[in-house]
Amino acid sequence: xxxxSCLNPIAQVGLDNFTTDYRQVDNTDDADAxxxxxxxxxxxxxxxxxxxxxxxGAGVNNIPVDKCAxxxxxxxxxxxxxxxAVKELVFAGMLLASRDIVGGIKWCEENADDKDIGKAAxxxxxxxxxxxxxxxxxxxxxxGAIGVRVANAATHLGMEVYGYDPFIxxxxxxxxxxxVKHIGDVDDIxxxxxxxxxxxxxxxxxxxxxxxxxxxxxxxxxxxxxxxRDLLVDEDAVLSGIHSGKIRxxxxxxxxxxIAGEKGVILTPHLxxxxxxxxxxxxxxxxxxxxxxxxxxxxxxxxxxxxCDLGICxxxxxxxxxxxxxxxxxSAYTTPLGDADINIADMSNKSRGGYAYALLDLDSKVPEExxxxxxxxxxxxxxxxxx
Length: 387
Fold this sequence. Notes:
By secondary structure, this protein is an alpha/beta fold. It is about 30% helix and about 20% strand. The chain is built from 13 helices and 16 strands. The strands form 3 sheets. A 7-stranded parallel beta sheet has the order 8-7-6-9-10-11-12, with helices on both faces. A 5-stranded parallel beta sheet has the order 2-1-3-4-5. The protein has a 4-stranded antiparallel beta sheet with strand order 14-15-13-16, covered by helices on one side. A hairpin with a 2-residue loop joins β14 (about 345-350) and β15 (about 355-360). It is elongated, with a radius of gyration of 25 Å.
């Protein structure tokens, strides 16, 4: 019997994918796996029993990823599961920024008691006039699951779309419309585009990538959209750009005291993935990732370990070894298996940064003393007998 714990409400359609071999528990110390959305986990201590954490969403800033890697806990996210929901909100943000829809709605509310509101509206509407998206230049920085969808959809609205991503994946490249102009220098997007939307992960080299220097390179009247991570943008620099007239609007999904209520800022309360469909998709993917890892040892969509997949085990035994990515470590588990006359029928060893993961399909079961022998190596973090 496997046990899992939910730190936040997780869509039932996902939890229903757990079989009767799984039971939900409240105490995380008893759990083999944890599902989480926004709960902060950095101050948590994890039991030796914990195998995996699945974030029902893309960002993992609330999870101590490095600490988990060192303790042999695989952290998953659900890339692409909420991509359509975020894409749609990006276009809502573009429309709200290009046309004063919110101002018009407020005017109607304020004049609701006017019996001649229809006539008054014809006179008032000029103050809410805006511009169209058609024919405008959109720069998409980051062509992952969300960025590709935004770029492709924008071409159908008649926008001239520029895409920038020096690390674009093969899958994303295949999915990208041929109408999108792939840009090799992000400065070209800053200089050319009327709208700039950011869809990159928060890393040391992307933190505050929208700053005074990049804003200085942008067109006057540019609209900047950030539905990815708040710290990708230097908000003080953006506010200065708004006050000077360089930036027409800053549209973001991350509320904080610095920008809340500021003129020129269109702010939503982190609604990007808040649709029933996105929450369902994330929950289903998170549960599937946990089950495949616990039952088969396969890793897909981990943020701290490499992907590694041997499918369903058809041999007598399978073990998984998490270890530091150092030379000579492979022999730490192949040698004890050979000494015990256990044949390796199939094997996959993948590395990611300072860590590596191995799956070994074996022609016989692995005795406990062999597992203990493998665990004695100081570079081995965790050994798990899957079958």
